[in-house]
Amino acid sequence: MFRISGTRNIKSGTFLLLGSLIFVVYFYKDSTDPNTISLQVDWRNNHERIKSPTKNNTYVYSWPSCQQNMSAANISGFSSLPAGIQNFLYYRHCRHFPMLLDVPDKCGGVDKSADIFLLLVIKSSPVNYERREVLRKTWAKERLHNGVWIRRIFISGTMDSGFEKKRLNKLLELEQREYNDILQWDFSDTLFNLTLKQVLFLEWMERNCPKARFLLNGDDDVFANTDNMVDYLQSLKDNDGSKHLFSGHLIQNAVPKRGSQSKYFIPVQVQESDSYPPYCGGGGFLLSGHTALVIHNMSQSITILPIDDVYMGMCLAKAGLSPVSHMGVKTLGWYIPSSKLDAHDPCYYKELLLVHRFLPSHIYLMWHRIHDPNLKCGASKKILSQDKAVNYKW
Ligand SMILES: *[C@@H]1O[C@H](CO)[C@@H](O)[C@H](O)[C@H]1NC(C)=O
Ligand SMILES: *[C@@H]1O[C@H](CO)[C@@H](O)[C@H](O)[C@H]1NC(C)=O
Ligand SMILES: *[C@@H]1O[C@H](CO)[C@@H](O)[C@H](O)[C@H]1NC(C)=O
Ligand SMILES: *[C@@H]1O[C@H](CO)[C@@H](O)[C@H](O)[C@H]1NC(C)=O
Ligand SMILES: *[C@@H]1O[C@H](CO)[C@@H](O)[C@H](O)[C@H]1NC(C)=O
């Protein structure tokens, strides 16, 4: 919750959830190409992937398109709900979409994935090209830090329709060719589809990267001090990712917004219960590979709630696990106590894990400033040590 993200025209392309484990793998040519070749595989028992003849290293798992659930219109009060909510209810059950871009070898294969200490999983919609470019050069750079690997993946849907959709897909395809860091599925990348995006990623992870130790799951408009994250995770007693960890900006006692004007409006028709479980703000949170797989498992039997971070909390609750607060994660931004102090003083950011809402240019600048060997942090260090809440080591 509390995030800003472009909501676009809602595409009515629909896909049917196949209850069975059988699905279709086809050779990808174009999502609208009628001449696709199909073959059936049971993917639980057969992880065979088909290499695309037209795109390098691209694999596609596909299901027949998900049908609109007409019975949703029978829910009481349906006709008075906003169109976006109605649309959500019609397609709420759809959980499988064809992959347009994949990087199945991102983690080096199932077993090698244990070599990845921190996987950065960044929600990015197709238009956010500048943000991706800056992240690739700054905190999301793939690298070895303190002897362990950091890897990056952007997760995306599609936007718009017709020529515009094609154009944006082409952009991602070009980026993919250069960087190999995008997972894209063919569903509308809207605010209320973020949970779907999250669940699709977890499914991908289970298939391709199940042994990654830790993940940072977040948005593309945050400043993340990924060096500090690795240091912090390495300092944990259990730092091999096999124990529960879910940490970030903890939100407790939140309730669904019942006013239809709210961006996060959740009417009783979507969720009856008047409370949300504890969860961490979706701008960015850290979790262990173990916890990611548990969440994925739980998600299969929990109806989709369109608010992705709350939904993660629901999955944790069902597994009997709790999210915890990390004071270094400021997904609501943070406030400097005095107007005499510069909120962009790099000395603050040197000590934090994550701050929400940064412009690409500010991310670029800040990343370089905190790595400047000549940076002196005497005075502001003092302020930091007074504010335990700010220092990530607390
Ligand atoms: C395809 O990918 C492989 C390795 O992933 C690379 O060696 C090869 O050059 C690529 N081919 C093309 C045509 O991009
Ligand atoms: C909606 O409800 C009506 C009346 O109960 C029923 O006749 C109809 O089949 C329902 N429609 C769907 C799509 O379930
Ligand atoms: C369709 O919507 C109705 C009414 O909300 C619901 O009872 C039913 O389970 C839904 N069907 C599917 C396949 O999700
Ligand atoms: C989610 O994406 C699907 C597939 O594009 C679309 O049919 C549905 O309307 C989207 N849902 C929302 C709430 O935007
Ligand atoms: C998934 O959850 C079910 C219970 O819902 C449990 O029996 C199973 O062991 C879990 N699998 C994993 C891999 O956690």
From TrEMBL:
<keyword id="KW-0472">Membrane</keyword>
<dbReference type="GO" id="GO:0030311">
    <property type="term" value="P:poly-N-acetyllactosamine biosynthetic process"/>
</dbReference>
<dbReference type="GO" id="GO:0008499">
    <property type="term" value="F:N-acetyl-beta-D-glucosaminide beta-(1,3)-galactosyltransferase activity"/>
</dbReference>
<keyword id="KW-0328">Glycosyltransferase</keyword>
<dbReference type="GO" id="GO:0000139">
    <property type="term" value="C:Golgi membrane"/>
</dbReference>
<keyword id="KW-0735">Signal-anchor</keyword>
<dbReference type="Pfam" id="PF01762">
    <property type="entry name" value="Galactosyl_T"/>
</dbReference>
<keyword id="KW-1133">Transmembrane helix</keyword>
<keyword id="KW-0325">Glycoprotein</keyword>
<keyword id="KW-0808">Transferase</keyword>
<dbReference type="InterPro" id="IPR002659">
    <property type="entry name" value="Glyco_trans_31"/>
</dbReference>
<protein>
    <recommendedName>
        <fullName>Hexosyltransferase</fullName>
        <ecNumber>2.4.1.-</ecNumber>
    </recommendedName>
</protein>
<dbReference type="GO" id="GO:0016266">
    <property type="term" value="P:protein O-linked glycosylation via N-acetyl-galactosamine"/>
</dbReference>
<comment type="similarity">
    <text>Belongs to the glycosyltransferase 31 family.</text>
</comment>
<keyword id="KW-0812">Transmembrane</keyword>
<comment type="pathway">
    <text>Protein modification.</text>
</comment>
<keyword id="KW-0333">Golgi apparatus</keyword>
